[in-house]
Specification:
single chain, 375 residues, alpha+beta, Aminopeptidase, Alpha-Beta Plaits, 2 domains, nine-stranded mixed β-sheet, four-stranded antiparallel β-sheet, 9 helices, 29% helix, elongated
C-alpha cells in the first residue's frame, strides 16, 4: 500500500539535494536514489559521461527471456533563479502543496516512482516483465550527458518505455518536431541616400519572413496539437544607418507535426528565399523528429486503465515542445510520457506540486506496473 508519509519524506529529501543544471551535478541526488533502491534489494549501477554528471540505473528482474519495461524520470532541475519567497532547496509544505525546486519538474515524479517500486517490492508483487529504472542526468540541457548516450550506447535496452515528466495525469502520445536554423543573406552595399544602387539584405529578410509565416504549416493537422509554428528568434544585419545593408542573418525555430518533415520545411524555405535572392546560406543547428504512438497501444491502454481504476480522468494529449520521447523513436522503442506534476509550475519561482496528486500518482504507477502486458 502506498504510504503518503514515506512519499512526502522522500520528495522533501530529493528537493533538498541540489542538482541544478547548469552548472550540473547529480551526484548527491543519484547517491540518495541508489541507496533507496539498494535497500529494497534492487541491483543498481551508475554511468557518467562527464565528471559530476551521474545517471542511476536499477533493475527488478522477472527472469530470463522476459520483455523489459523502462520507466525514466530525470534527476536534474533548472537553476532556481531569483524571486523565491522561501529558499528553493528547503522544501516547505503549505496545505496540500509542497514548494521547492523540482517539486513538479521532476522530483515529484521521481518520488512517486520510488514509492511505487517500494510497494511492489514490500508487497511481494511479481511482475510479468523486467522493470528497468533510469533516473537520468542533463535532461534540462538536452540529455547529451544522460538519456541520449545511454540509448545510443545500448546501455539502456527495453521493449517499451514510460517517461515520467508530465503533469496532472496527462498521457503524451504525440509531440511536435523541432528544427533550429540560421539563414544568412548577402546583398550589395551602397550609400543610404542611393538605395537603388545597392541590394538591401534586411529588406530581403523581411520579405522572406512574411512569406514563410503565411505558408508554414497550412496543410497538416493533429487533434492533440496546435498547428505548426515558426518563430523568428533573433535577427541581425547591417553596419550603419546610412549604409545599405549587404548582410542579414536570422534564426528560425520551426515546430512541425507528425506527417511532415524537416526536409519538406527546408525545401519550402529555399524556394521562398530563391524568389528574392540566390545569395544565401542555411545552417542547421539541430533537428528533433516529431513523434506519435497509436492511442490504442498497450502503454496507453494500461495507463488509462490504471488511472480510471482510481477514478482519475486521464488526459490524452500532445506536447508542443521537445521532450525525450523522440530519442526512443530513434531506437524503435515505443514510448509515452506521463506524470503527476502541477501544470504551469515547472521552471518558475516558488515551484510546487500537489501532495495528493503525487500520492495518487504513486497509486497509478503501482496499478500500472502490476497489470501491464506487452500485448
Amino acid at each position: 500500500m502506498v504510504n503518503k508519509k514515506r512519499l512526502i519524506k522522500t520528495i522533501k529529501k530529493l528537493i533538498s539535494l541540489d542538482s541544478q543544471n547548469p552548472p550540473g551535478d547529480e551526484r548527491e541526488v543519484a547517491e540518495f536514489v541508489g541507496k533507496y533502491l539498494k535497500d529494497l534489494g534492487l541491483e543498481t549501477k551508475s554511468y557518467s559521461f562527464s565528471p559530476k554528471r551521474v545517471n542511476l540505473l536499477a533493475r527488478l528482474d522477472a527472469g530470463k527471456n522476459r520483455k523489459s519495461l523502462l520507466v525514466t524520470p530525470h534527476l536534474d532541475t533548472v537553476p532556481a533563479g531569483a524571486n523565491w519567497k522561501t529558499p528553493a532547496l528547503k522544501p516547505k509544505i503549505i496545505g496540500n502543496r509542497i514548494y521547492g525546486l523540482g517539486a513538479t519538474d521532476c522530483k515529484g515524479n521521481l518520488a512517486s516512482l520510488l514509492e511505487a517500486i517500494n510497494v511492489i517490492v514490500q508487497d511481494g508483487i511479481k511482475l510479468d516483465y523486467n522493470l528497468i529504472f533510469a533516473a537520468t542526468a542533463d535532461e534540462e540541457s538536452g540529455s547529451g550527458l544522460g538519456l541520449i548516450p545511454l540509448l545510443k550506447r545500448k546501455i539502456l535496452k527495453a521493449d517499451a518505455a514510460i517517461v515520467l515528466d508530465a503533469d496532472d495525469f496527462e498521457i503524451v502520445v504525440t509531440q511536435k518536431g523541432l528544427m533550429h536554423l540560421t539563414v544568412r543573406l548577402r546583398g550589395k552595399k551602397a550609400h543610404g541616400a542611393y538605395p537603388w544602387l545597392g541590394v538591401n539584405a534586411i529588406d530581403i529578410a523581411s520579405r522572406v519572413i512574411i512569406d514563410l509565416k503565411n505558408i508554414h504549416g497550412k496543410t497538416v493537422t493533429n487533434q492533440y496539437l496546435h498547428p505548426p509554428t515558426v518563430n523568428v528568434g533573433t535577427i541581425r544585419g547591417g553596419d550603419k544607418v546610412n549604409v545599405v545593408s549587404d548582410w542579414c542573418e536570422f534564426e528560425l525555430d520551426f515546430r512541425f507535426l507528425p506527417g511532415s518533415s524537416e526536409k519538406e520545411i527546408l525545401r519550402s524555405l529555399r524556394r521562398i528565399i530563391s524568389r528574392y535572392t540566390n545569395n544565401f546560406k542555411i545552417e542547421i543547428q539541430g533537428v528533433q523528429a516529431p513523434y506519435a504512438i497509436d492511442p490504442s497501444h498497450p502503454l496507453v491502454r494500461s495507463l488509462v486503465s490504471a488511472m480510471r481504476s482510481l477514478k482519475i480522468k486521464p488526459r490524452i494529449s500532445g506536447s508542443e515542445g521537445a521532450t525525450v520521447i523522440t530519442f526512443f523513436k530513434e531506437m524503435n522503442i515505443p514510448a509515452v510520457a506521463t506524470g503527476f506534476g502541477t501544470e504551469g509550475c515547472a521552471h518558475i519561482a516558488d515551484e510546487y506540486a500537489s501532495l495528493d496528486t503525487l500520492y495518487q500518482g504513486a497509486q497509478v504507477l503501482v496499478n500500472f506496473l502490476k497489470t501491464y502486458r506487452f500485448s
